[in-house]
Write a structure and sequence with these properties.
By secondary structure, this protein is an all-alpha fold. It contains 15 helices and two strands. Helix content is 74%, strand content 2%. It has a two-stranded antiparallel sheet. The chain is globular and about 60 Å long. 33% of the residues are buried.
Amino acid sequence: MKIRNSNHELLRLIAMYMIIFIHANKYLRNYYTGDLWHIFNGLVNGICNTGVTCFILISGYYGIRYDIKKLVKLECMMISYSLLETGILCLVFPEQMQGVILLEQLVKSLFPFISRKYWFYSCYVCLFLLSGYIERIIEKFPQTELKRLLCLCVLLFSILPTLFYFEIVPDNGKGLIQMILIYMVGRYIKKYRDGGVWPSKKVLLIAGAVLWVLNGISHEFPIEFGGIYHHLCKDNSITNLLLALIIFILFKGFSLRSGVVNKASSCLFAVFALNNSLVDVSVVLLKAHGFQGTNSAWGFLALAVVVLTIMVFCLLIGMAREIIFGKCDSKLGEKLKKLEGGSDEAGLWG
């Protein structure tokens, strides 16, 4: 059986690793100290915040097609992962997970989409529901008009927030507006630039390195004035978008086929749901075992291993859940699809 190209599936995995690294770096920063601290922190934040943007660019490039069976599977997965996360937190932090806090966690776990327990998941489901209409807009617009629309949106929601502290949508890019914008950029590349000529790999690597350094320096030495705290390491920064585009194009340029990579990539929502709680647990375990900070690069490498361990553990949980509950998800999705009457016949999602 022919295995589909895995280059962008590998990028999904790397993007997810970068997302966990951002989360872990925030909590475990005291475990690598000394003069190298600013360098390591700048390296991490300078590139790892492109993770979500890379993920959505790939989704836009390949496109999302509404299917109630996929929607049911997504919701079932996130409910089960969220309940598991609540159980882990109750086990490790019993004194905190009580009363109203525990009740809130349980309610959010049962309704992860509506409660926005995970901002990315809630926005992704909205994108999933809107994808057919977005596709119609892209199909109806001439290329020049679509390019103008994207340029206008990039100006309003990316360039202006980068140049100025103020934002029209005050979410630092962690919301539906930014997600739709990045998704449409991915769709535009697929429709009009898929066979186009890009800058050489050398130029892309140099430009990417410059943006990485610029982001890192900006994060370590932000603009601080009164209540203003401004740097470039945000989801909606134009430097972040350009760096993510460069990474996406570089991965687009080579071919990789791996069943293991594809399988692991299909379980990434387990990582989205569980990584934050497992980072918290890792902090507790490290402190309990007397792990101390270091003035060398070993602390940074230890953090990288912790992040990799968390990611692999989450992927294994995702694979185990698919083995145990995958058929149940499919059967429930089939029943709801019959009740829906078939979205293709209704013509609502293209």
